[in-house]
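Supplementary Data S3. Sequence and C-alpha cells for construct A.
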Amino acid sequence: MISVLSRLSDTHTRWLCLAAAIALPLLLYWLSLPRSLTLEDAGLFQLVCHQGGISHPPGYPLFTLACQGFVALTWFDNPVIPANLLSAIFAAGACGVLFLIAEQLGINRFFSALIAVSYGASQAFWGQAIIVEVYSLGVLTFLICFYFGLRFSIDGDQRWLYCLALGYGLALSNHWPVVVLSSPAILLLLLHQSATFLACLRSVKFWLLSVGLFLLGLSPYLTLLQSNPEIAVYGPIESLPELLKYVSRSIYADGTKAATLWDKWQFSLWLWSHSAQQFGWLCVPIILLGIWQSFLRLPRLYAVSLIVLYLGTTQILNLLLSFTFEYRFQSVFNPYPVIAYSSLAIWLGFGAQHIAEGLVSRKIAGYLVVAVLLCLPLSVVFSNYGDNTRSQSAFVEGYGETVLAAMPADAILFVYGDYEVAVLGYLQLVKGIRPDVELREWHNLVLSNRMMSPLANPAAQKEKREAFISAQDRPVFTVSKWDINSVNQGLFYRVDPRPQTRSEYVAGFEPLLDLVTEAYQQELFFNAQEHELAYSLLFRFGRHYTQLLLDSGGLPADVVPRYEAVRSTFPGALATLEQLLLAPHQDNAKRALLKVADSLLLKIDEARYRRDLAYFYYYYGQIQLMVPADEEASQTAFRRSVETYPERDNPAFCHLQEHAQECE
C-alpha cells in the first residue's frame, strides 16, 4: 500500500488524478442530465440564456453572460441541453479545484481525487450540476478564491492576493449572498500570514491594484443596464440606483411573515440531518473522524476555516432567513449550502486517509485497502442516484405542451409564476410551440409585452388589464383563477364577461391527469416544485370536476374514475370540500359535509403546505357553524387554522371571536 501511495503521489500522476476529478463527475452529469425542461428557476434561466435579458435579482450577470455565449456557440437538436451542460461543466470544474485545495491541505492525491469525485456525486451538488442553475458556477468561483487564499497563506506571495481580488469580484458577480456568507473562511486563511497581509494593506500600490481588479471582476453587473430586455422579471434597468436596488434584492422578498423561532430551530435540526445525507450515511463517521484529524494535521486557522465555511451557508444563513419549516421551503433551502458541503468533502478526505494509514500500519494488503476506499465515491453515487437521475424526466414539458395545444387560434393567455410564465414562455419562445398564442404575464412581470411597470400601483395595473381584456375580440384565457368573470375549463379559465356556467368540460386533458395522478400517488417527483405543480393540478381538477358535477348533475363516463382518483388525494379532496361548502345546503348537509371532512382528515399526512392545511381547518370550522351550530368546535377549528398559518389573509382569522372587531 505504501508503494501504491508513493506512486500516486508522484508528479507524473498529478494530472491523471486531476483529470479523473473532473472527467468522472462530468460523465456522471452527462448521463443524468435532464433532456427536457425542469422547474426551480430552469424555465427563466433557459429564457434568458436563449432570448437574452435579465435574470431574477440579483441578476447573476456572470452566469448569464457565460450561458448566452455557450448557447450561441453550441448546437443541439434539443435546446434545453446546452444550458444544462454548461452548469455540468462548471460543476466538474469545481470538483477539479476542490482536488487542488485538498492537495494543498496535505491530503494525498489519491484521496484528493476520491473526495472530489465524491463531492461531485453528493446529493445537493449533483442535483444542481445537471440543471441550468447558478450554484455550480457559484461553487467554482468561490473555491477558486479559496484556493488563491490558501496559496497566499502557504507561501505569502502577494500575487495570490491580486488573483483573489479579481476572482472575488467575479464570484460576487454570480451569486453574492452565498459568497459573502462563505467569505470569513477565506479571511481566516489570510490571517495565517497576518504580518505579510498587514504589510500589503499598508501599501498604496496594493490597494490600487486590488481595488482595480476587484472592480473589474464586478464589471459584469454593468450588463444588467438594459433599456429594452427581451426577458426581465421587473422590467428594464436604466440607471445606477435601479441597478443597486436590483442587485441588493431589496425588491425580492425571501421568506414569509408566518415564520417563527420554532421554524428556525426545526431548520437547524434539518440542516444537520441534510448534511449527513449528502454523502450517504456510510460516510458520516468518516467525516466526523476527518474533523478531528483536520485539527491534528492542519494549522489551527485552517481547521477553523473549514468549520466556518460549513456554518456560513447552513446554520448562519438559517438565522438570516424567515422560512416556515415545510416541504416547499426545504426544497428552496436545499441548494444554498452547496459551498458549505465542500468542507464535508475535505473532512471525508482526512478521515479516509487516516483510516488507510491505520490499515497500512497493520499490514493490511494495500490493494485491498484501495478497493475498500474506492467504494466511498461509489457509495455516494448509489446513495444519490435515485434523487438525481433525471434524463427521462418529461413531466413539466408535458404539462406546458398540453396547455398550449388546447388554446384556440390567436388566443391571449395570461400566465403567472414559474409554473406558467417560465414553462409556457420557454416552450413558445425557445422551442417555437404555438407562436400564434399571445402570452402575457398577469402582473406585467418577466415578458417584454408588459402593459406597464410591474412596480406600478396594483390598482393601476388592474385598471389597465381590465381595459385591455374588455377591448379584445380574441379569446382570452388565464391559467390561474383571478378575480375576473371566467369559466373553469380544468387546466385554465376562459374569460367571459357574462358566464352562463362555472365550468365547461374540455376533452384531451385526461392523459396528463392520469400521469399526474400516478406520479403523485407513487411520489415520482424529483423536487418540491414538481410535487407542487402536480398538487396544484390535482386541486384544479378536483375543483373543476366537482363544479361540473354540482352544476350538471353528472360527468362524462370516462371522467368518473378519474374524478375518484383525484378525490383520493389530499388536494383533490380539499378542492371537493371547498366546492361543496360553496353550494346551496339543505338542512341535513352538515352530517354529509362532516363525513367528507373526516375522510379528508385521514389524508392529512399529504398536507405538505401550511396554507392548505389551514384552509382545511377553516372549512371544518365553517361546517361546525352549520345547523345545529357548535360554536366551541368551530372556534377550535378556526384557532387551529390560524396557528397553522398565522397570516392575515387566512379567512379563519376574522372568524375568531377575539379578532372579530378587527375585521369589521
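Construct B, processed identically:
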Amino acid sequence: MMFNEMIENPALLTDGYKFCHKDQYPAGLEWTYETWTPRKSRIEGVTHAVFFGLQGSLATLYWKWQKGFFERPLDVVMEEIRESLSGTFSITNPEMVKNYDYSHFEKLHKLGYLPLRIKALKEGTFVPIGVPMFTIENTLPEFFWLTGYLETPESCLIWQPMTDATIADKYKRILTHYAELTGCNQPKRVFNQGGDFSMRGMGSPEAAYRSTPGHLLSFGGSATIPARNYLMAYYDAKPDVIAYAPSTEHSVMESYGRDEKNAILRLVTEVYPSGTVTIVSDTYNLWNLVDNVLTDPEVKEAIMQRNGKVNIRPDSGDPIKIICGDKDASEENIDDRLKGFAETVNKGLIQRLYEIFGGTKNEKGFIEIDSHIGSVYGDSITPERAKAICEGLMEKGFVTVSVGLGIGSYTYQYMTRDTLGFALKGTAEIVNGEFRAIYKDPATDSDKFKKSQKGLVAVVFEDGEYKLIDNLTPETIKDVKGNMLEDVFVDGEFVRTQTFDEIREMVASESKRVYNGKF
C-alpha cells in the first residue's frame, strides 16, 4: 500500500469549530482582541510563569502560512479547505456545508499576509499568575475572524515551552540552593547538572524541539539535538547552545554479553580515550559493576589515567536510594538478585565511587569526588526527587553536584496546558464602529479560575512587580504610562525580536527578582 503525503494547509491546523465562528459573531463585527494569560499555578511554590516561545511560535506560523497557503495556488488551497470542511461537517450539519461562504479564505490569500498585531512583554519575563503576556488583534476589519481562528495553533505551540521554562527554573533554584550549601559556588556546574532527556517521551519530534528550549533557558545540556536548529533559526542562538556527551544505551552494553570489564575498557581507552563519556551501568547488576568491575585494577587505572570524566549511569529503581544509599538495606531484606551487595546498597553509588576513586574536601568540609569519575541519573526525576537527592548527598557529606540529573518526559510530559492555566481569551471587540468590552465570568467557576480580563489591557511594572490594568478603552489606554506590552509582530512582519542569549540572561535576572533563591 502506498501513502500520500499528509497535506499541511495551515488554514486546517485549527479546531473544527473555528470554521464556524466567523458566521456566528454578530453582524457588523470589525475587530477582535484577545489576551494570553497564565490563570492558575498547579506547581507548588510557583507564583509566576516564564514567558517564552512566542517568537518561535510566530516564526513557525509565519512559515506555515507562507509555504502552505500564500505561496500555493488559490484553487489548490481552496479545494483542500472545501474538502476538509465538507468531510468534517457533512454528517452533522449538511445545510451548513451547502451554504458555507469561503470568500474570507480567498480574500486572505489575495492579501498575502496575516493582518494581525501582536503586542507582548519581553520573553524571559516572570509573569505573575493572572497577568497577560501578550495580546492579539486584527488590523483589517474584514479579517476579524482571524484573531480567534489562530487561537488553537498558537496555544498548541506555546503553552509547553512556557511551562517547561517555568519548571526548569524551579529545578535550577533547587540545585543552586544545595550546591551553595555544600560549598559549590560555581554556577557553571549547576548549569551543566540538569540535562534534558525528554525527547523520546514527547508527543512528537516537533513538540520535543519546541519544548527543550524552555529547559535550556536554565541549563546547558540536552539530548534533543533538533532543538539546536530550532533555536538557531528562530532565536539567533549560537552553535554551542546545546552541550551533550557521548553515552551508551543498554543494547550497547548487552552486545558485550556480561563481560562488563572489557566493555568499559574498550569504551574508555579505544572509543573515547579522552573527554566525557557516560556509561549506562545497570543492564545486569549495578552493584556488581561497582564492586567488582570498577574496583578491578585495570579498569580503575584506565579511568584514572584518562583526560576526562567517566559517568556511571544507573537507569532503574529508586533514584534517591541508589544515589544516596538505602539505610534500611540488609542481607535479610534485600532483593534476592542483590544478595551479597547489601553493604554497597546501604552506602549508595556516590559514596562507593568516592571509596573507590577518592576525592577531596572543599572549604565547607564537603567531599568532591575525583574529577575522573562521576554519575548521571536520568530515570523518573522530578523536582521533589531532585530535592531529596540533594538532601541525601548533603547528609552524607558530599557536594550535591556530584551527580548529574537527566530531566525527562517524567517531568516535561507530565503536564498539560492547565498546569499553569494558559488561555487565549477575547476581551474586546468593535461592532459597527462601537467599542465593546467583553469578558467571561462563569457562575459555576467557584474559584474564579476562568474569569477573564475585560476590555483592553495594559501591563505596568510598579513596586517591583508586573501588574495588570484592564477594562481600558482605546481612549483610556493612551493614558497608561509605562505599558510593557509592545508591538512584536504587525501585518506579517516582526518588529521586535530577541536572541536566546538575551532571554537566558533575563530569565536568570528575573528568577532572582521573584524568588531570590527560594523554591
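The first helix runs from residue 18 to 24. DSSP finds 20 helices and 19 strands in the chain.
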